[in-house]
Amino acid sequence: MYGNKPRLITEEPTVETLPIPYFTVEQVTLKGLKDHMVEMGSKLSFHNPVNFNIPFASITYELRSGNRLIVEGAVNDPGFLPANADTQVYLSMNVPYTFLLRLLRDIAIHFGKLDYTLTGTVAMDVPVVGRVNVPIFYKGRINLWKIIRPEEANMH
Questions:
Q1: Which DSSP letter does residue 108 get?
Q2: Transmembrane segments in this chain: where (predicted)?
């Protein structure tokens, strides 16, 4: 009767069955004024559902209004996604006042609001799989009225 003993068959996880890490993009916000720049930023909020750390290779981004590049950059040494956890990466963007002056007509037409597109790439070195590039894409509108007249920023 040894050969008739029931055996449990377990399915080993594969690359196809592993849960997938994901991230969300928060809208670009005004952080403050510096010497000759407006400090803006956006957060990437990551969720890693797997039980191992995933190292970032790089994070690059571009902020555009229409076809005009406002700012581009990269996050140096972004670290890693901790296993079974959430983490945030902040994209810091410093925009020269001179660039905003070039956009003044567009800003005035839209009552201080500027339409933008945030694009880029998050590159991760996933164990066993290798380098995975995930695109960043977010469209939004930022209220620059806060720079022009801070005391009336909440009126619009």
A1: H
A2: none
Q: Whole-model pTM?
A: 0.77
Q: Which domains does the chain have, with CATH numbers?
A: 18-96+115-141 (2.60.40.10)
Cα angle 35, 30, 113 (rounded to 5 degrees) comes to 110
> What pLDDT tens digit does each residue of the chain (156 aa) get?
445 555 455 555 566 777 888 899 999 988 888 888 889 999 999 999 989 999 999 999 999 988 889 999 999 888 999 999 999 999 999 988 888 777 777 777 777 788 899 999 999 998 888 898 999 999 999 887 766 555 544 444
What one-character DSSP code corresponds to residue 36?
S
